[in-house]
Input
Amino acid sequence: PTTSAEDSDQRHTQLYGETRSDALKSAATAFIDQAVAINEGIEDAANKINVGIVSFSSNAAVEDYLTQCEGAAAETLKDSVRRLGANGGTNPSAAMSSASSVISGYGSRQDAKKVVVFFTDGEPDPQGNGYGAVTTAYSMKNADNPAVIYTIGVFEGANPEDDPTSSSTSRANLLMHAMSSNYPQ
Output
């Protein structure tokens, strides 16, 4: 028997010709390619885009600390994205905690604009670990040098048009909204 996640992935593949995981990897790789293209036009290394990667399932792991997005470093980042795989639950709290550490830790520049792009191909658990994700995102959005947080869900029912103030909005979409900078409080 297949699980609901497997059924959802099969429906996604039938509709879009690729798995949710492949769609996420394509989006993340395109993001890195855009950062490379932007960096090519920036002279001052202190102003270039740095990218780090955190993977997560039931737990989170830093795959790459912040590194300048160009040349061999960009290829290393894309290799990290290619190695990502579906591996269990979707723990947004662990992911946001690790992302917070990355943007404020090794390789971060004090005055740099901080951006977190939270990509997920699984429906985040809005109950047991969702509160931690929202409180961490809130702290990052309200820091002295606040982070801008984008949330991108590639899961069945992901809908950025859902009204976060409506009682009919799914808990997963409510969590995605609450983490994003579109919902600052």
Remarks:
- The helical segments are 4-16, 20-40, 71-83, 92-104, 130-141, 171-179.
- Residues 51 and 104 are 12 Å apart (CA to CA).
